[in-house]
Description:
A hairpin with a 7-residue loop joins strand 1 and strand 2 (104-105). The protein is globular. It has a two-stranded antiparallel sheet. The longest helix has 15 residues, at 161-175. It has helices at 6-15, 19-22, 25-33, 47-60, 69-80, 83-87, 113-116, 120-129, 133-136, 139-147, 161-175, and strands at residues 95-96, 104-105. Helix 1 crosses helix 4 (47-60), helix 5 packs across helix 11 and helix 8 (120-129) packs across helix 11 (161-175). By secondary structure, the protein is mainly alpha-helical. The chain has a domain at 68-175: Cytochrome Bc1 Complex, Chain D, domain 2 (Orthogonal Bundle), CATH 1.10.760. The structure holds heme C. The site of heme C has 27 residues, from helix 6, helix 7 and helix 8.
Amino acid sequence: MYAESRQEIEEFIRLGAPRSWLEDPAASRRLADQRIRMPAYDQLLSVDEIDNLVAFVGAVERVGAPDDATAARGRDLARAKGCFSCHGVDGSGGVPNPSSLGGFIPGFLGANFTDLVEDESEFREWVLDGTSTRLETNPIVSYFWRRQRVAMPAYRGEISDDEVAAVWVWIESARDPSN
Ligand code: HEC
C-alpha cells in the first residue's frame, strides 16, 4: 500500500518505515504518535533473509512488475514452466531442500545468485542440463548435490533457446535494485 519500490520495501523491513518518512519531521511525529509501529528488523535478520523477504513482498504485491515486454514474457514463462514451484514465489527462493548445501533451494533475486550463475551461458547450462560445469567439479558442491532431496531438472527439449533468453532478461531486470 505504501511501498512504491523494492527499495522502500527494504526500508520498511530494515528500518520500520521508508527513509524519506524518517527524515521528514511531520512524518516522524506521526509515526511517534502511532500506537502500533512496524518494528525495525535490521539487527534481527541477515542480508540474505532481508533480500528474500523483499523479493517475496515485491512479488506478492506485484511491486516492480516488469514494464519491458520480454521481461514480462520471461516471468510468465518461468511461472508456466514450473520454476516457481521450486524456486519460490517469483523466484524469491527459500523452499526447503533437506541435505542440500544451504538447506534451501536458492532463488534468483538474492545477493548470492551470482555465486551460482555468473552469466547467461551458465544460466543456460542450469536450465537445459540441470547443472553447472563450473561447480560440479567442486568436491564440496558435488558431495551435497548427490545427497540433496530435490535436484534441478534438465529442461532440454522442454524450453526453447528463445524462451530461456526471455527468462534471463526477466531475471536480470528483476535483480535491478531500481525496479
Ligand atoms: C523440481 C524443482 C525445480 C524446478 C521445477 C526448477 N528448479 Fe532450478 N534448481 C532446483 C534445485 C534443487 C537447484 C540446485 C541448487 C543447488 O543446490 O545448487 C536449482 C538450481 C537452479 C539455478 C542455479 C541456482 C540458483 O541461483 O537458483 C537456476 C538458475 C535455476 N535452477 C533455474 C531454474 C529455472 C529457470 C527453472 C524453470 C525453467 C527451474 N530452475 C526449475 C530445483 C528446481
